[in-house]
């Protein structure tokens, strides 16, 4: 697809990430040559595409490194500090053109190494997050989030307390006590948006724990102008840090996150924790659509 903007005609690739089917995953636009675009061009392209985020690629800071790139991410409304699914989509797009192996992505959140490999005929990318952190969520902010969501405090899972988790951008983690509670999502868009802007949140990650290392997640994303994200790699990385900080899983765990099912876009995100390494690795497939 090409699209006319003030900077000229821009080639936009279309991928879906965290799925091997065009009917699943989270769509992203990928512009592999964004050097001629300014900020207004990029947000205009992202808005026209309508994906939750799109990635814009320019050469990395080392001109001698052909596998080093600078990535910027835009939602239909504004620039986003980091986006996992667009990172995975970009890595796979580059892997198809430059071959599998390691890439270095420079983002406003920091340096993000990514490895692309082929598995069963499909390319999968593993991103390694920046150093994460987890902090307490103020009770008044949790109360306001629940009110915006239309949830009751007693519907939460007390074993997974609310926290704000960061692995590139900030997410409020709230755990539902039942799968049924997670499945019913009808929130006050403007009220949640105001809270998220005040707390500098990218998404609210809503979680239900199916098993020791299996979770179902949903991510309202009003700050991006999107009701819900179908697959959120940045939130998955932040959740891995959350799970480790609260000792919900071992230090060497692999978590499986199912997302997008309730909105008809099933997505699969794999989250790996390694002993002695605070960073979180998130793996997913991506295909051109």
UniProtKB/TrEMBL annotation:
Superkingdom, natural source: Bacteria
Keyword Repressor: no
Family annotation (Pfam families): PhzC-PhzF
InterPro entries, alphabetized: Phenazine_PhzF-like
Keywords, in A-Z order: Isomerase
Family statement: Belongs to the PhzF family.
Protein name per Swiss-Prot or TrEMBL: PhzF family phenazine biosynthesis protein
């Amino acid at each position: 697809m090409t699209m006319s903007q003030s900077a000229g005609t821009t080639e936009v690739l279309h991928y879906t990430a965290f799925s091997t089917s065009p009917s699943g995953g989270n769509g992203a636009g990928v512009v592999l040559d964004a050097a001629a675009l300014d900020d207004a061009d990029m947000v205009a392209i992202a808005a026209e595409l309508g994906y939750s985020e799109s990635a814009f690629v320019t050469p990395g800071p080392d001109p001698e490194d052909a596998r080093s790139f600078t990535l910027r991410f835009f939602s239909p409304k504004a620039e986003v500090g980091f986006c996992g699914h667009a990172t995975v989509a970009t890595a796979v797009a580059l892997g198809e053109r430059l071959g599998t192996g390691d890439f270095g992505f420079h983002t406003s959140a920091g340096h993000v190494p990514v490895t692309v490999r082929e598995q069963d005929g499909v390319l999968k990318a593993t991103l390694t997050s920046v150093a994460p952190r987890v902090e307490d969520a103020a009770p008044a902010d949790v109360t306001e989030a629940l009110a915006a969501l239309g949830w009751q405090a007693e519907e939460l899972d007390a074993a997974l307390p609310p926290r704000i988790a960061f692995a590139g951008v900030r997410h409020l983690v709230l755990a539902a006590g039942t799968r049924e509670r997670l499945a019913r999502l009808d929130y006050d868009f403007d009220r949640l948006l105001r809270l998220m802007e005040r707390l500098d949140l990218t998404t609210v990650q809503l979680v239900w724990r199916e098993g020791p290392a299996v979770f179902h997640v949903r991510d309202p994303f009003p700050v991006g102008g999107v009701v819900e994200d179908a697959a959120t790699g940045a939130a998955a990385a932040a959740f891995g840090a959350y799970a480790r900080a609260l000792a919900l899983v071992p230090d060497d765990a692999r978590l499986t996150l199912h997302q997008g099912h309730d909105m008809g876009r099933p997505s699969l995100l794999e989250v790996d924790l390694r002993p002695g390494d605070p960073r979180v690795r998130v793996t997913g497939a991506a295909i051109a659509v």
